[in-house]
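[audit] Reproducing an earlier prediction to check determinism. Same input, same settings, fresh worker. If the tokens differ from the archived copy the diff job will pick it up downstream; this log only records the rerun itself.
[audit] input (138 residues):
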Amino acid sequence: MNLYDKYHQKMHEKKGWDYQGITLDAYYDTFVRGFLEFGYEFDYYVEDKLVGVAYVDILPAVISAVYCYYDHDFEHFSIGTYSILKQIEVAKRYNIKYLYPGYWIQNHHSMGYKERFKPFEILCNRPDLNENPLWVKE
């Protein structure tokens, strides 16, 4: 919980995110209670220091990245990218066909890195395609 709070304080300074401290109960409600049997927490350490946490859903056919936060003192390790690589490793180990790396915004400085992982598919959900969404592969 301390790392989560530190991350959000830094994002408030860095990007102007609204910042509110989180209580243990609120953290539990947000990240622990709803995980059921398919939710997992990936913890990343440098030596004995926790530097990143990722929450993922793991189902028979897909791994879905839910949320990732990290210690900005270690951002040079690209913990978000490392987390995706670890999720790919788990998917391969358990023959899971798909990985959904989470919400993506094209050319976005914080989320654009996800498109570096290939093959990359985009579901275009435009009003003119609502009845027949188009999958685009890169």
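[audit] rerun output stored. Observation attached for the diff report: The beta strands are 39-46, 49-58, 62-70, 98-100, 121-124, 134-137.
[audit] end
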